Amino acid sequence: MNDKMEIPVDIPLDDNGFIGRECLECERYFKLKPGTGLPTKHCHCPYCDYEGDGNTFWTKAQIEYAQSVALNQVINKYLQPSFDKLNKTFKDLERKSRNSLIKFKFKVSNEKLELPIKYYNEKELETYIVCDSCGLEFAVYGVFARCPDCAELNAFLIYDKSLDITEKKLFIFLKPEIPNDIRMDSYKFILFDCISAFDGLGKELRKKVQNIFPERPKNIFQNLNALDDCTGNIISNSHSNYQFIFKMFQVRHIYEHNMGVIDEDFIKKLDGYSDKLGMRYNLSEDEIKIFIQGMRELGLIIKKYLKP
Ligand SMILES: [Zn+2]
Ligand SMILES: [Zn+2]
C-alpha cells in the first residue's frame, strides 16, 4: 500500500443547493450555491480579506464527515478482507476441532468493520444574496459582505433592498383602509428608513473603501452638503433633484429633533421658509414617493463615484 492515497468524497449540498464554507483566517461561516456566479475555484471570504483556493474553505464538520467516509472506504478495501480471512481461519479451526479433545469456539460480534459516519447539517444564515455583479447566490451572517466569487461589496445591493422594503411599507400605508392620521404619521418613518439605509451604506463604505470619505463629519452620509463637498460636488451636479432631497434631509432632522416643527436652522438652510418658523412641516404622499426615487438615484451616484 502507498503511504499516501486519495479517496474522493462528495460533500452534500443542503436542501436549497447551498454548500457551507468556512474561512481559514477568521473562521466565520457562510454558504454559496455551486453552479452560480463565476467559473472559478478561487474564493474570497465575505467577512475578512482572506482569499484562496476553494479547497481551503471546507468547514470542520465537512472535514470530519469526509474523513469518516474515507476511513470506512479504507476499512472496506484493505482491512475488511483481512478481517474476513481471519474470521474464516478461526471458523475452520472451530470446525476442525469439533471432534477433538480441545474444542475451539469463536464468536464474532460484528461481521462488518464499520466506523460511524459523522453526518452534519449546514447552518441557517441571516441574509441570502444574489450578487448583482456575477450572479453568485450566497448567504452570510449579518447583512454586509463581499461576494465570494467576484469580491464585489454587496452594500449597494443591500441599500437597494432596504429601499424596496420601504416602498412596500409605503404601499401598505397607502391602502384605503388605513386611517388618514396613521398614514400621515407613517411618512416620517419612511423618511427615517430611507436616510438610515443611506447612513448604513455610508458606514459600510467607510469601513471597506479606505481614504475616500473624511473622518469628519462623522455622520457624513446624513449630511448631504458635506458629502457633496467631499465628492467634488458630484451629487449636486448630477442628481436630477438635488435641492429636493437636500430639503428632505432637513425635514428628517426637524422630525427627529423638533416634532416636525420648522426651526431657525431649517430656515437658514432652505430658502422660502422664513414665514413658516414654528409651524409644522406636513409631508405629502407625493414628496415621499419622489424622495424614495431620489434616494435610489443618490445611491447610484455614489456607486458610480467609487467605481467610475
Ligand atoms: Zn474570513
Ligand atoms: Zn459576485
What does this structure look like?
This protein is of the alpha+beta class. The chain folds into two domains: 1-152, no CATH class; 155-306. The chain has helices at 60-96, 155-173, 180-208, 224-230, 234-238, 242-257, 264-269, 285-306; strands spanning 19-22, 29-32, 42-44, 51-53, 127-130, 137-140. The strands form two sheets. The protein has a four-stranded antiparallel sheet with strand order 1-2-6-5, with no helix packed on it. A two-stranded antiparallel ribbon has the order 3-4. Helix 2 (155-173) runs antiparallel to helix 8, helix 3 (180-208) packs across helix 6 and helix 3 (180-208) packs parallel to helix 8 (285-306). The longest helix has 37 residues, at 60-96. The model has no long low-confidence stretch (mean pLDDT 91). The chain binds zinc ion (2 copies). One zinc ion is lined by residues 37, 131, 133-134, 136, 147, 149-150, 152.
Short description:
The protein is α+β, with helices and mostly antiparallel strands.
